[in-house]
Specification:
globular; 3 helices; five-stranded antiparallel β-sheet; alpha+beta
Length: about 170
């Protein structure tokens, strides 16, 4: 019975190698640190049961805003278009645009993605960069892996609010 349970779990989650392959196709040339970022997330959180591929833009001068859009993919519930937006506050200045892969852990249903996820983010790059962070709400953990262009320096605290339709309201 334990072997059957492990096989069932395997079919509901994404392995590190599957995520690295998908990430390389999505990120292209900028994916040098992708494998190590996914390995680090897997060692901390296990295998995700979903992921989002999308793009986002953000800017900050002490306070900031982030907006993004993408598609959530799951093994058993299909896929859905998602949008995210959120405010930040901290010692942060600059702007960037990024391709984003968000690893989704412990998502019980597609509808559960539509809420706020809080966390701390740090950035330091000029022209281009690669970053990973973690956001949490209850048992659900999101791990955004970003590769972007722009100029950004700082650390901030904030949240991302996920919605089924695009909105300019980050609150």
């Amino acid at each position: 019975m334990p072997a059957a349970a492990a096989q069932q779990r395997q079919q509901q989650t994404y392995s590190s190698s599957e995520l690295v392959d998908t990430g390389h196709k999505f990120f292209g040339e900028m994916s040098g640190g992708l494998a190590s970022a996914i390995e680090r997330a897997a060692s901390s959180y296990g295998e995700p049961n979903g992921y989002i591929l999308g793009q986002e833009g953000s800017g900050a001068f002490v306070g900031g805003l982030r907006y993004g859009e993408g598609t959530l993919y799951t093994r058993n519930a299909g896929s859905a278009r998602v949008y995210w937006q959120g405010p930040t506050f901290g010692l942060d200045v600059g702007g960037d645009g990024a391709r984003t892969m968000i690893l989704v852990y412990n998502l019980p249903s597609m509808q559960a993605i539509y809420q706020r996820y809080g966390g701390v983010n740090g950035s330091a790059y000029l022209v281009g960069g690669f970053g990973i962070t973690a956001l949490r709400q209850g048992n659900i953990t999101l791990v955004p892996v970003r590769t972007g262009v722009g100029a950004r320096l700082g650390v901030n605290v904030g949240y991302l609010k996920f919605t089924p339709q695009a909105t300019w309201n980050p609150f």
